[in-house]
Amino acid sequence: QVQLVESGGGLVQAGGSLRLSCAASGTIFSVHVMGWYRQAPGKQRELAASITTSGTTDYSDSVKGRFTISRDNAKNTVYLQMNSLKPEDTAVYYCYHRTVGDVYWGQGTQVTVSS
Questions:
Q1: What is the SS3 string spanning the chain?
Q2: What's the pLDDT tens digit per position in 55-64?
Q3: Which of 60, 20, 23 is nearest to 44 (CA)?
Q4: 32-46: per-residue pLDDT in tens?
Q5: Does residue 104 have a pLDDT over 90?
Q6: Which long-range CB contacts under 8 A does 66-69 form with residues at least 24 apart?
Q7: What pLDDT does residue 22 have?
Q8: How far is Cα 115 from Cα 101, in angstroms, rounded to an integer?
Q9: Is the pLDDT of residue 100 over 90?
Q10: How far apart are CA 7 and CA 113, in angstroms?
Q11: How many CA atoms are closer than 13 Å to the CA of 43, on its beta-carbon side?
Q12: Residues 65-90: tens digit of each pLDDT
């Protein structure tokens, strides 16, 4: 089992920045992927960004160039730096941890961007 605790969401004006954190604990395999999905009201959950244990990153086109995902393997923590935020970034952001055969989710953190 893997437990994920997220922090860092909140309310920000358009153009502002926020940094999300996701700390993992429990049985963590050496090879895994962590990242962030987001779900806006009335929309499907979509992948925002992901990062492997070796540091390979992937971003959705909608956040590329504005969001940066990083990780601290010693702390089992993943970060999502979100810059130049737009109202359409408003969503609940869910941290996830994926290994072979298992996916674990955080409780979600609300990000609201006002225009």
A1: CEEEEEECCEEEECCCCEEEEEEEEECCCCCCEEEEEEECCCCCCEEEEEEECCCCEEECCCCCCCEEEEEECCCCEEEEEECCCCHHHCEEEEEEEEECCEEEECCCEEEEEEC
A2: 999 999 999 9
A3: 60
A4: 899 999 999 999 999
A5: yes
A6: 69/35, 69/36
A7: 97
A8: 41
A9: no
A10: 16
A11: 14
A12: 999 999 999 999 999 999 999 999 99
CA–CA distance, 81 with 70 (Å, rounded to integer)? 8
Please identify which residue in the block is written with the tokens 């160039």: 65
| Token pair of 96 as six digits | 């996830």
